Amino acid sequence: MEILGSADAPPADRWPAYFAERGHAGARRIGAGVEGVVYGLGDGQVAKVWSGRPPAGLALTRQVYADLARHRLPFATPEILKVEEHEGVLVTYERELAGVPMGTASGRSEHGRELPTQHCDALLTVLRGLASVPGTDAMGRLTVQGDDRPLWRGHQRFQEALAALVTRATARHRAALAAHVPDLDAGVERTRKALRSLPETPVTAIHGDLVPPNIHIDPAGRPVAVLDFGFYTTAGDPAFEAAVTAAVWDMYGPYAAEHSAELTRILAQELGYAPAALTTYQAVYALTTYDLFGLDDSDWHFRWCVEQLRRNAVFNA
Question: Where in the numbering of this chain does the Aminoglycoside phosphotransferase domain appear (predicted)?
Answer without folding.
Answer: 27-251
